[in-house]
Amino acid sequence: MAEHRPQNFGVPSAHVEPHLSGRAGWLRAAVMGANDGILSTASLIAGVAAGSGDKATIILAGLAGMVAGALSMAAGEYVSVSSQADAERADVAREKAELADNPEAELAELTAIYEGRGLSPDLAAEVSRELTEKDALSAHLRDEIGLTDLSPPRPVQAAVVSALTFALGAAVPLGVAFAAPLGALVWWVGAGTLAALGSLGALGAQAGGAPRGRAAMRVMIWGALAMAATSAIGGLVGQSI
Which of 38, 78, 84 has the alpha carbon at shortest distance from 62? Predict the structure, then answer.
């Protein structure tokens, strides 16, 4: 993926600062997909294992969960990000129409925004006029609506990344379940899943410039709770049938 380079709006920069927020779009989809793949597949395996003694059934359930989850993640991400892109396009079209119909009111609105951010009235008016003369639409999209080109919606990218990372994540508990002895399968899957979740949380935090320990602990706690709950439910259902 291409690194984001900050915009300088035509002004030469003495140096290029590395910013991590440009990774937000694909990083969010990748971390979410892998995390869901690990946790949902592990929870499914744990639930089936607690309610059934058949290892073939356990592996089959895990495989089905991996395929269904990957396709579901792809579809969900595509629809979600496409909806975001549609909303942004609608905002752009609405702002274009407003600038064409009432440019004076839009200029006053931009001036008020800059005054609210701390500029003096005269300076706010000057900045608004100069930005409007250069590119009125970009100024309003950025400062009035908050739209920038930092991380534009990419539905196909989000769908593909989510599906692939879900499948890769799901492969971890599946591989552990395949190699583990049946009698200790739940414990092996639990340990492997927690290790994978902790590593993923730390890796995602590092890629985003956030504290690794807290992120790892957070996903491990929720993972343990999810697997414990599905194991308990699987055991109860298995006993009843």
Answer: 38
φ/ψ of residue 164, rounded to 5: -65, -45
Share of the chain above pLDDT 90, in %: 16
- Decide: pTM greater than 0.85: no
Neighbours of 146 (CB within 10 A): 8
Token pair listed for 76:
């969900």
Radius of gyration of the chain (CA): 25
* Residue of 185, 190, 154, 163 lying closest to 42 (CA atoms): 190
Residue 168 above 80 pLDDT?
A: yes
SS (H, E, C) the chain: CCCCCCCCCCCCCCCCCCCCHHHHHHHHHHHHHHHHHHHHHHHHHHHHHHHCCCHHHHHHHHHHHHHHHHHHHHHHHHHHHHHHHHHHHHHHHHHHHHHHHCHHHHHHHHHHHHHHCCCCHHHHHHHHHHHHHHHHHHHHHHHHHCCCCCCCCCHHHHHHHHHHHHHHHHHHHHHHHHHCCHHHHHHHHHHHHHHHHHHHHHHHHHHHCCCHHHHHHHHHHHHHHHHHHHHHHHHHHHHHC
Mean pLDDT of the chain: 80
